[in-house]
Design a protein that fits this description.
Length: 144
Amino acid sequence: MFARTLEAAHSSKDMSRNNSLTFTGRVRSFRYAIRGLRVMIVSQHNAWIHALATIVVVAVSFYFRLTKAEWCWIIFAIISVWTAEAFNTAFEFLTDVASPEFHPLAEKAKDVAAGAVLITAIGSALIGLVVFGPYFMSALRSWK
């Protein structure tokens, strides 16, 4: 029984009926993703801080004319923080649905998810220090 169900689910006839595999289905998926980003930015104050930090870091990166390798590290750091924040936001929403009333385990789950964002932000700040440190030190020496 299970084998027949699995076989039917993967048959080409069923796949052609699946609208999510069409071009318009892909476009719709991007719309949902963009809507999710908008929800995160509008509803999460920390996302505003991440947005400001992203703008500042990108501007400073252009100012110092980073190498391609340095840009890779900066992009990695920025994407890591945004990804952690997105997962944290999703986790908070899901936790609120699963446990509308206060529950100590729900609180712990939210705290751990927030901790993951903090770990990522600290790691990204360290990457920023390694990449930008020499540029800032050089700029400070030239001002003396």
